């Protein structure tokens, strides 16, 4: 099980009974309970819940409309604490802690949504990912779910030499080549578009002067045009030209008779999406203006995703972007970049590699800026 905070998501474990195991309470080095050292922390009790999943062709709104029209919680003896939308478009009905027997309410929900949804009363150890549940899940809930799933799924084994070698290769591939290649492509485009380079250099020098010449997290955050240049670089040259995923269950593609069976490998062509004129007019043109705050709003979801999307998007995204920005700032604050005789224009991309790179080297000329 994964506990993720992306898009305000978490995993929540619904259990009808609160656990009071001392083993799950935080302890000091001598084994005493932390709560006993200061103010007693009241354990957050868990709630009962009913989950309604929509059948194909139905939505969260359809379910909620029928439930509100046909189910009266008061007459069924249920206190509804909250109504939330699940990641898959279902309705999660959480009941207050004073709720007793909820079977009548559950049957009423089943009757109301008989033709448009499936109803499940959540039982102990049932986990479900939902949106916007900050403050609902206690630390104990998460800890217990993690420990339970680890015991069930993790096979502990001794690491071997090949494992260490594979990790080192991953660090180099994911942490070095991605950053270096992105910087290289950005410098090439700036070298061949001197007007864009001049605008970026003015921004960099101006903001560095404001911050006493220091390259800091705050100063980088103020360089909006730098962010636009890097975003456009990653659009035109996504470092990984495709994403690969595997289906966890059978999935019927809406509007077709095609079913992706569980375990099917799915490849998502980022290079094709990023260069599709439907989403990015004149895709071969290097145009950072596509990524102004206003223009970003017109880019459809999942048309631009150089780092992937969802809970499995690149874990090093922020670190990688910070490295690229830092490198470009140090270079462009001191040098102007120009093509040389050996620079190949246009670039020829290597079509055989897993990572976006050129068939040959990318020689450029660096001239120190006169200060």
Automatic annotation (TrEMBL):
Residues 1-11 have a biased composition (Basic residues). Heme binds at residue 314. It comes from the Eukaryota. GO terms for cellular component: endoplasmic reticulum membrane. Coiled coil: none annotated. Residues 1-49 are annotated as: Disordered. Residues 28-38 have a biased composition (Polar residues). GO terms for molecular function: heme binding; iron ion binding; monooxygenase activity; oxidoreductase activity, acting on paired donors, with incorporation or reduction of molecular oxygen. Its cofactor is heme. Its main location: endoplasmic reticulum. It is a peripheral membrane protein. It is found in: Endoplasmic reticulum membrane; Microsome membrane. Keywords: Endoplasmic reticulum, Heme, Iron, Membrane, Metal-binding, Microsome, Monooxygenase, Oxidoreductase. Pfam families: p450. Gene3D superfamilies: Cytochrome P450. Belongs to the cytochrome P450 family. PANTHER family: CYP9F3-RELATED, CYTOCHROME P450. This is Cytochrome P450. It comes from Timema poppense. The lineage of its organism: Eukaryota, Metazoa, Ecdysozoa, Arthropoda, Hexapoda.
